[in-house]
Every structure is written in C-alpha cells, then in structure tokens.
Amino acid sequence: MDFVSDSLASGRRLKCLTVADDVSHEAVEIAVDYGISGVYVRRLLDQAARFRGYRAAVRTDNGPEFASRAFIAWAQGHGIRHILIEPGAADAERLHREVQWPVPRRVPERALVRNPASGKDHDRGMAA
Predict the structure, then answer these.
(1) Whole-angstrom distance, CA of residue 37 vs CA of residue 3
(2) Can you tell me the distance from the alpha carbon of 44 to that of 37, in angstroms, rounded to the nearest whole number?
(3) Residue 17 pairs with which residues in a beta bridge?
(4) Bridging pattern class, strands 13-20 and 2-7
(5) pLDDT at 112
(6) How far apart are the first and last CA of the chain?
(7) Which helix (H) or strand (E) holds 52?
(8) Which of 1, 57, 66, 85 has the fewest CB atoms within 10 Å, measured from its CB?
C-alpha cells in the first residue's frame, strides 16, 4: 500500500491510495479523495476484506496514515503483521507508474471523488 498525489487543474490536491496484492500483482483497491486518514484506510481495507478475506500481513511505508493509532489498532485487532518498507521501493512504485495518468486535468472534479462505502459523489464521511 502506498499513496500517489496529484493536483487538479484548479490546484486542489488529490491523494490516491493504491492497494496491490504482492502475489498476483493485482490492484486490489485504488481510492481517490482530497484527504485520506488512517480511519479511511482502515475502512477501505475492511471493505476489501469482505471479498478477499484478511491477509496475514500488509506492507506499507511509514507514512502518517500507516503510523496512525487507527491503522495500527486495526492491524493488531485482525492479527495482521505490519511490515514497513523503504519509501520509494521499486515494487511499490511499479503500480504508481500505472496509476499516474493525466485524468485529474481532464475529468470534472466532482466525478473523481467517490465514497466507496456509500457510492455517493462528494460524500466525505470516510475522510477525517
């Protein structure tokens, strides 16, 4: 898991959380929002686990979202080992190269941000 950032033509920043399966190299989740907290990450992973189950371990860098009390409590509560990687590791960057497209400058802002729990545009309930 890692983040990619970009900005809209208006200058507003976007964050993209990319979650990839280390074995299949499949993109499990890609969340786009104006801000993504540890609580947001936790809810997104719970949603993914409904379809795939909880993994034995997750690999992240030591960014604030992954060092948050919410994320650490989530991992410990599910018995998930948290493995830290070096920022800029090649395997994390591979998916980012695929994700960084010029869409934020071409698509209307309201079409980019969607709450995965409710499916409603501009529902910021998960970002805290």
Answers:
(1) 11
(2) 11
(3) 3, 31
(4) antiparallel
(5) 55
(6) 19
(7) helix 38-52
(8) 57
Write the pLDDT tens digit of every residue in 9-18.
788 888 888 8
Between 63 and 50, residue with greater pLDDT: 50
Structure-token pair, residue 29: 């989740």
The single-letter code of the amino acid at 122 is H
Q: What six digits make up the tokens of 70? A: 């919410």
Burial degree of 34 (CB within 10 A; 0-12, 13-18, 19+): middle
Place of tokens 């941000």: 113
- For position 99, what pLDDT does the model report? 55
Structure tokens, 96: 């980012």
Q: Which helix (H) or strand (E) holds 31?
A: strand 27-33
What's the CA angle centered on 65, arms 90 and 54, to 5 degrees? 75
Distance of alpha carbon 2 from alpha carbon 15, whole angstroms: 10
pLDDT at 81 over 90: yes
CB atoms closer than 10 angstroms to residue 6? 17
